[in-house]
Amino acid sequence: MRIHLLPCLLLLPALAHAQMPGSAAEQTTENAQNMTNVGDKNFDVVSFNKRDDGVRGTPMLYAGWRMGEVLLVGNTKPLRMPLKYDVYRQELRARRPAGDSIVVPLLRVQEFSWLPAGGGAPQRFVRCMASPLAPELVGTCAEVLVPGQRWQLLKLSRKVLTQEADPSSSGLQPLMVKAFKPLTTYYLRWTTGGRIEPVKIKRAALESALVKQPAALAALRARRLSIGNEAELAAVVAALDASITE
Q1: Which residues pair with 178 in a beta bridge?
Q2: Cβ atoms of 206 and 233 closer than 8 Å
Q3: Who contacts 236 (Cβ-Cβ below 8 Å, separation ≥6)?
Q4: 48 near 88, Cβ under 8 Å?
Q5: Which of 28, 121, 119 is nearest to 79 (CA)?
Q6: Which residues does 223 contact at the CB level (< 8 Å), separation at least 6?
Q7: C or N terminus of the chain, fewer CB within 10 Å?
Q8: 241 with 192: CB under 8 angstroms?
Q9: Largest CA distance in the chain
């Protein structure tokens, strides 16, 4: 069951400014109470929804709930709660203690993070602004792969609906079914000016994105490093960001 909560989300900034509790148990209790108080007023209950029935796969970035934090626009302290991210519809969902959920409009979100169960760095997502070179970023949140000083490497995860053959069917004309297909794109975002430019997992594509950055371009050409996957792209961008001092 999902709860749509647009009017009541206006109350969330006040909750996020509340004093942080002293212990993890107190923080969990306070966050649960905050979400319960907000969700108990003026919300619309949406009954079981079958809109994705018959579609292979899931619209979510990850299956199941993951503990995370949401920092809303205008706030300095995040709210902690279980989260899901529907990357097909670009909807962030938060689960209340009662077990139902609300939709947090991305226009109200500065960023959100998933917190690793075993510790380590959180998986951080930031809301993207419009860019002439990347209009698809409007109304989305992208993962920060490299939080550099000069530029960031962002990863946008989406899913689209496609038609594919049902593996259980046979014959010359197999049955076609709808399926969610992942679609991933990468971007460089300059920390000064906010310029965003798409970049592919290719050395030539990164050189093209840095053509107006002579120092970075020279440093990239001096490093004969291959770029064939996401990890290699992130490592090169991080190394370049750390090496430029001008």
Answers
A1: 55, 163
A2: yes
A3: 206, 220, 223, 225, 227
A4: no
A5: 28
A6: 236, 239, 240
A7: C
A8: no
A9: 66
Q: Residue 219: what residue type?
A: A
How many residues are listed for the chain in this entry?
Answer: 246
What does the DSSP assignment read for 81-136? EEEEEETTTTEEEEE-TTS-EEEE-GGGEEEEEEPPTT-S--EEEEEPPP-TT-GG
Instruction: Specify the residue for token string 């430019």.
Output: 197
Count of CB atoms within 10 A of residue 108's CB? 18
Query: What are the start-end ranges of the H helices in the chain?
Result: 12-16, 24-39, 203-209, 214-222, 230-243
Place of tokens 């109470």: 33
**CA 28 to CA 80: how far, in whole Å?**
8
Report strand pairing: 55-56 vs 176-190: parallel
The per-residue pLDDT string of the chain (246 residues; one tens digit each, 9 = 90 and over) reads 444 444 444 344 443 444 444 455 555 555 544 444 444 433 333 335 677 778 888 999 998 899 999 999 999 999 999 999 999 989 898 888 887 888 888 888 999 999 988 878 899 999 988 788 888 898 899 999 999 888 899 999 999 999 888 777 766 677 788 999 999 999 999 888 888 999 999 999 999 998 888 888 888 888 877 899 999 999 999 998 888 765
